[in-house]
Amino acid sequence: MVKDINSNTYINRELSWLQFNERVLQEAEDESVPLIERLRFLGIFSNNLDEFFKVRYATVKRIDEAGKTGKSELGGISAGELLEIITQIVIKQQSDSLEILATIHKRLEDKNIHIVNETQIDESQHRFIKNYFIQRVSPALVIIILSELVKLPTLKDSAAYLAVKMVFSDQKKQFALIEIPKTLDRFVVLPKKGPDNYIILMDDLLRYCLNDIFNIFKYESVSAHMIKITRDGELDFESDLSKSFIEKISDSVKHRQIGEPVRFVYDKTIDDETLLLLMNMMGIDSKDSVIPGGRYHNRRDYMDFPSLGRTDLLYEKIEPLPIKGLSLETSIFHNIAKKDYLLHTPYQTFSYIVKFLREAALDPKVKNIKITIYRLAQISHVASSLINAAKNGKKVTVAIELQARFDEQANIDYAEQMQTDGVNLLFGVKGLKVHSKMCVIEREENNKIKRYGFLSTGNFNESTATLYTDYTLFTSDQRILKDVVKVFDFFETNYRIFRYKHIIVSPHYTKTKLFKFIDTEIENVKNGKPAYIKLKLNSLSSYMMVDKLYEASRAGVKIQMIVRGICCLVPGIKGMSENIEVISIIDKFLEHTRLLVFCNNDDPKIYISSADWMSRNIENRVEVTCPIYDQDIKNELLDVFHIAWNDNVKARLLCGTHENKYRRNNLPKVRSQFEIYNYYANKLQD
Q1: What residues does the Polyphosphate kinase C-terminal domain cover (predicted)?
Q2: Best label site of 338, 339, 381, 461, fewest CB within 10 Å?
Q3: Was 8 annotated as part of a binding site?
Q4: 337: which residues sit within 8 A by CB, 6+ positions away?
Q5: Which of 435, 502, 508, 658 is catalytic?
Q6: Which CATH superfamily is domain 504-685 in?
Q7: Any known ligand binding at 375?
Q8: From 3.40.50.150, 3.30.70.330, 3.30.870.10, 3.40.50.300, which CATH number describes the 332-492 domain?
């Protein structure tokens, strides 16, 4: 139980998350970021916000509706108060995002890219739009005519709708909703005129074609304003014993579409009559976050803004590098048998993971393959390699997490396909998500079984591997892999708690081991020995871990932390955290690596991990934190951390006031993601 929580000791998790999303918005505002990339950061900001309301806001709302304050879980703020604070922050951020979007539109015009609305269409564009509407749009539309006599159908979670109001000559009114289909491109590229590109949003194309849609109504005026509803994204499971686990997850994912509303966003120029009608029909109440917005919602679609061939308005693409000493043209097993190798995507190519699994699928000496899967790519070479292995007679065991939030359906589809093709599926442990990222294969060599494998900080997903930074350790270290096999044994016999000599496994040992490492640093600094801690995490929200770091700081242990997202720790407070510095890096790639470094009297203990320092990762998930024993890899990880720590271009300082200030100094410019790529390129030249 967390006691004496106050705003000076912890930063509320939800508010810290909103601060993180503000850092994403800063990238959209940054004039040095290429223009189309700035639009895509706006899309990421919007997508993040959708997920925040589905999950975090919905959770706080549940606490409030249960009549609880939730102060001990929410950093000292009551649930009701927090809901109000969140809404006010989001209204401000939405307003800022609209201003940023308007600025980007002006900059795009300077680059001969014009985003036009329904009032700016000329004759040639008129013909194109009318034909496009008839051929592509009209057949896909879902139009709901609103009536007091007919119950409003459930509106889809996070879908965008145009609320239409028609006024007749006798002043009677008819209301309708147009669902903007997700199957259609949000951005319609119109014919070029010389060097100029023209784009119209689907929303405005529909506004332009309102008369084609509603021509059976003899109205005098018609208007259309966008609305969007976000629903509680929690999965609720049935207790029907006749259904398989896959069926229960599948049904629950479908049920999510009709979950309780938690946010309602509307075009602030909509008239009061239409707004009140819609809110009443949808059951929006004072507990929901009602956000007045701009003309366009679902700005997450800007993540897919067309590039129009304008490479000058995009980040320069990097060519993923090979790993020094590890060839894709020879046996990976042969190389890994000699030493460990570290893959750092996207700087280095994800192809090594696919090559490893392809080789295992074909090698007659490979008998068993075991792997955990959390999020798969839509077209997954990882999954096809595992199916290939099963067809070749290997025993393939996949521990697949069907509750990977918002990716459940993709995992269900692949689970069913793998099951059909002879893969042995494990669905984890009741009450625990399987979030660990690991693979072990067993190969017969000289009449004995030798293990090879890899452990990672990220998902085995080809798509995200081009966008997320992650570490993957390839190893034949039998000490580590013997422990990994025990984790798979735990999946099958989870009434037993196994002991591990090398890896650290949640939920049984992570807290104890991490506390032990921190205590060693505290003891060493008290005895005048070298002591420090370096951490790179996505999130830090566990109050017990924050308290332990405060204890280390008070003892004099120097702590450097790179935390991308949520950080409930308040750094730099005298008598509590003056020895702790925290930065956050938001740039071209999503920082996803998790690294733990403990000085250990100048004999560093270094780990990579699938786990953040959040209560769920430590107590409610199966996570694996893996030691690094190879000295070359240790040096590499320390080098890369050092480069990131010295970033003075994209790093923000998380100080006591949590203001998201860019770190600026007079030292030579270090943009860490670019410098890390150069670091690996230079290693190949050595």
Answers
A1: 331-495, 504-673
A2: 338
A3: no
A4: 450, 452, 476
A5: 435
A6: Endonuclease Chain A (3.30.870.10)
A7: yes
A8: 3.30.870.10
